[in-house]
Amino acid sequence: MPAARSRIDERAMGAGTTVRFALLVALLLAAGGAMMLPAVNSLHSSDRVGCQLALGIDPDRAGDLTSAVNALSQAVPYEACMAKYAPPPAQWQIFGWPVLLSAAAALLFVLLPVLKARRRRAVPLESVDKNGELKLILAELAETAGLARLPRVVVDRASVSTGAVVFGRNRRPVVCLYGGLLACRATDPERFRAVLLHEFAHIANRDITVTYGTVALWRVFLALVLVPYLVWESTQVRGVLRWGTWSTDAPALTRGLLLPVVTVALVHLARSDVLRSREVYADLAAVRWGANPRGWDATTRAPEGGRLRRALGSLREHWGTHPRWEERRDALTDPAPLFGARALPVFLTGAAASMVNFHLLTYLSTYNMYNLWRVQLVALAPAALVAGVIGTALWRTVAYAVLTGDPVPSGVRTGLWLGAGLGAGGLFIGFGMGGSEWLPQRPAVLLLVLGAGVAFAWWVTRCAHLWASTWRGRSLRPPLLIGLVSSTLVLAAWFAWWTMDGWSWAAGASYNSTGMRQTALRMVPGADAARQGTDAARSAMVSAVVTARPVLNGFVASPLIPAAIAALWLMPLAAWAIGRAPGTPRWVAGALPGGGRTVPAGEPVPPLRRALRPGLLGGAVCWLALVGVQAHLHTSQPGPRQRDSVYEVRYLVWLFVVLVGAAAVAAVVAGVRTGRAHRLAGTLIAAESAALLGIAGMILLVSADGCVEPLNTLRTSCSWQPAWQSLGWTLPYLINGPLALAAIIAFLVAAAGSPVGRARRRWARPAGGAGGPRPRSAGQAPGARSFGVRLGAGGFAAAAVGIAVVMPLSLARFHTLVPDAATAPWATRQWSNVAAVPVSTATRARQVHAWHRLGGRYLLEHAAADFRYLGDVLRTAADTKNANLTYLARLRPTCADFGRIAGWVNGAYFRVPDPEAQSAWQALGTQARNGSLNCERALREWDYDLFATSLGELIAAGRSAEKVTNRVNTVLSEAGYGG
């Protein structure tokens, strides 16, 4: 086995190191503007805290869910306050920061070769090679390495090291030879040759540009971002120490202080890991060109001593940019480390992806640019980077296992490290947490992140195994590329869902059941009649909808959910449809130089019909169940006038349950019929195909409703009305919901089937003899397929792609809608159910003072002035006995002014952050609005009685304003606020 492994070509698949560099670049560029935002804000006068206090937010909890709900429920005044007192910096100041970093890094990248040569006092090769002998040797080595021409060569005569270094860029590399290497050319020619071939390998592998480009960007980031950020953060520390608020500000301040430290460590560790891998790749290339490994062999001491000392030694190794010589020598005989997904890089990738996602979202939130498509497009960036890094590593791991005959790993361990990194990155950034919170209110929800990482890695590994078993091309790169695109779609949907829904659940979100119930009834006609129903069954049905809808909203809100679901099962379906051909695949021959070798067959790929037949069975069961549902509901179909929304909701719930149930049945059957290695792929294909067939049947039956009398449900007359017209906004829930739940069920069934399958095999071995796959009949190729099976697979694929394209297009208006300040308060009050968080008396006084200072005092003084004028006019009318409408019409401007005050009180300005004052404030808004409307109507219609009523309402409004003023003054005086 070791001999076989030593001949595996490490170039059989892409290494993925370039994508890892791209991840670091994305992190630095995204963090540039996001980290500079508070520093830039500090240069402008701002009263952000005042607006938050007036809103009723506790500054110590700013950023948590309660604060977000408060902001959304009073979006109109909050946006107006922020625009006036705390406007964000000009967009070019933030969006231009990544551009500035890129430009400065590009300039430094161009200057780096000059600076490095000058620092080393390097001289051209010609100054030490008078007769040109050395240049001829170097040209020969460059030709051996496959270089088109000899790169520029300089010499550092002062260095006694027997090594060399290459810098510059790919098209204009510079090789610097150390003086010690030239000195040993005659005494140790093997070393001289090995070192030069190693450096030429870096040029051939195109390592230079990405390496030094990252170095340039990193140095620019340190100077232009980290230093200003640390200066700003130091002012925050001084403020906290001065005001003595460490106990409440500790979490936010700690995260702020650790952000540069963690960013530095994360970038350096990830960069060092990539550079260590590239050193090994250069070694392998040099040996392939004839270098003697002993030429650069040396000895380094492995970490020794106690556990702590070994841990520190291991950390030093990870921190360094070159692996130990022992590791490099071992990789020459067995390149397994290059084909594995190591824990630290996977964890760092997950953490970096979370940070990139958060930093990019900062750009949207700062300028209120949120909509569903923008959030989805932002999610594509970290998704593509994670897919490129982790996906490539898992595909290489599977390929290596297939080539060596080792068991193909499940990917679960890698997924755990990925999920841990994603969760740790989110916790460190503090996404969805207040400034005084170390953890979200529901930390258990973070287990979903861990589960998502495991599910992703497991799925990628199973897909890679299928493609490695069936692909007939010369290289695995084409299916790898398809797999990376599919992985990007899946992860992008996950990141978008977590941003829009997952973090709110972790932060403690819950929904107002009454408001959700009313919304559910509004989705279909006849809501008024339904709200008066008291039937227990009806109430339970609507309650089920209320419970499920918040979860289903996430499946509809993410534009790429249909595409991600399609990728989940079409990726393995395509590989399975190809089928495994007899003999050794051509890509295996390319990865095993020398030819004439075969690899162990491993577990055979079962026929595709084992996955498609359960899907067809589930679809047939679904059609029968749909017919049964309509026949059952027809027996209790009320007349058109008596048909209320609860009846229709009941019908929709049954449709949904039948679709999901059929998918679950198909997944269970497929989990039993497919083999252990392909159980996940089989359950996904079966569940999704059953759901697709069921959706097709549902659309047909709903569209033709009324044409078959025993099945009449919503209509009684026959006419073709497409389902998207009959079901309206409920159709996306009936398509995306079952498809998404079918995928989740498939994962759960496959996960549950793994231990069950192991137990069955363990019990079956004594009775059945030796284990192993069942022998095939003569002439049957592994994964044999018929034209009908392939045709069915193609039909399912076309339907899935069609849904993935049509659904986002049909919801484009919804997905591109930017929530405005007028609609956000209603939706928040209607759906959210966040308990009020008690605040201290001092904080309450600060909130009332901010409310009073930023506009409340002006409105109260305005109301008091109108009330005084109203009293003066009425007293004058009474004294002169001139209480007729002709005289009292002079109050028309006052009535109108009360109406304007009512507009401010009823939503244009903040609610009073004091319960007692807010009660009077709310009464003021109602009384002023009614009095203003009645007054103007009375004067318009010359109605004395209505005018008298309006005067009473306006007088009550004036007295309510006095109550608010008295209460606010009491709160402020008790807290020591003057004036």
If you had to describe this structure to a student in words, what would you say it looks like?
With 979 residues, the protein is mainly alpha-helical. It is built from 36 helices and four strands. The chain has helices at 2-6, 17-41, 48-55, 65-73, 75-85, 91-119, 133-144, 179-183, 189-204, 208-243, 246-288, 307-319, 325-333, 343-366, 372-404, 412-429, 447-470, 477-506, 513-522, 527-531, 536-557, 561-578, 586-591, 609-635, 645-673, 679-703, 723-726, 731-768, 787-810, 812-815, 824-831, 841-879, 885-888, 892-908, 915-941, 944-974; strands spanning 123-124, 152-156, 164-169, 172-178. A four-stranded mixed sheet has the order 1-2-4-3, with helices on both faces. The longest helix has 43 residues, at 246-288. The radius of gyration is 35 Å and the shape is flat. 45% of the residues are buried.
Helical content stands at: over 70%
Radius of gyration: 35 Å
Count of strand segments: 4
- N-C termini distance: 87 Å
Broad shape: flat
Alpha-beta classification? mainly alpha
Question: How much beta, percentage-wise?
Answer: under 5%
Q: Order of strands across the widest beta sheet?
A: 1-2-4-3
Mean pLDDT across the residues is 80
Largest sheet: 4 strands, mixed
Number of helices: 36
Q: Which ranges are low-confidence, i.e. pLDDT below 50, for 5 or more consecutive residues?
A: 1-6, 523-534, 764-785, 821-831
